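Reopening this ticket.

The earlier resolution said the output was attached, but the attachment link was broken on my side. Pasting everything inline this time so it's all in one place.
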Amino acid sequence: MLQPAYVNMNHLAQKNSQVGLDGVEDSALHAQSHQVPQPYLQLKNIRRQFDSQYVLKGIDLELKAGELVCFLGPSGCGKTTLLRAIAGLDMNYLGVIVQNGVDVSRVPAQKRDFGIVFQSYALFPNLNAEQNIAYGLRRLSKISRQTRVDELLTMVGLSEHRKKLPSQLSGGQQQRVALARALAPSPGLLLLDEPLSALDAQVREHLRGEIRRIQKTLGITTIMVTHDQDEAMAMADRIVLMNNGVIEQCGTPEDLYRNPRTPFAAQFLGLSNLISLNDGGVLASGHALSTNTRSILGEHCLLRPEQWCVSDDPAKGLPAIVTTREFLGNCIRLQLKMENGYEIVAEISSQATTLIHAEKLYVGLPEDHLVMLSA
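Inline output:
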């Protein structure tokens, strides 16, 4: 496996900045110090083509120092291809990548400043946990290397397992070793390629909290590739939602959930009821939206399951038959069929005892909960 070497990008940036500084006025330097901080990572018009097919179609993106950004999307959307371009593991791309003020577009992987954790862990099977972590620290003195390994083992909670081989560790423990190894050289950028996908649900939920804790503690700029929307929602400062080689939408998890801009974004992130307004099947406060309202607001309407007003009172909505119900602990998910033929998904509290076993309910929606989407 390719083991990237690490360079001090701050040193490179400082070195590059010396070119042409002679003769610059102090006032210009003073003004420069008050400029808005530059993004830590900039992607400019990144394109990647396989045969005649473009899998990345002009990606433009900026990351602030210290934030965790998730690349989220379905299989084949280009998220892993983009990550590999950022790492320099795939150099057959077009466009510009700037890291910490330095153009690294044509810099090979072994000279870029990053650590990476793969989905498959990629640990050396013949090395124990501490030896795997220490692998990228061979340039340090023995004492400095051991000190750094001890720090990382403590950080990931594996001090007592330092002498175990990968085959003697659980999947979650192996992934923590891989994370510690990636962080060992103190890189400026951490790349995570679906690091939790091979783990069971309980371990995955625990480990995503640990990764987020470590990332915030270190303040390291991080990119994580995932197809798991819950994972992205729980961990990310921002989500980059990708589809068919382009960025469909970028924003905070809350923004993407509450204000999706396209039908794809609405349907991919969270459960949704996506209804064409031209069909006259959308309800607001128990009544169909008027033609004028539909023409003004847009072509589609997004209704999240928890936003429906579900009642057993006929005065509070239009009738719907319960076709299926799922008990999910804190809520009950209902599949409802309206009289006009629409099937919708709604969620009610599991404490709503009068509604749990009802076969017929009434649904409505306040208009201020509607999210309108373009076609």
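Reporter confirms the inline version is readable. The two ends are 45 Å apart (CA to CA). The first strand starts at residue 41 and ends at 50.
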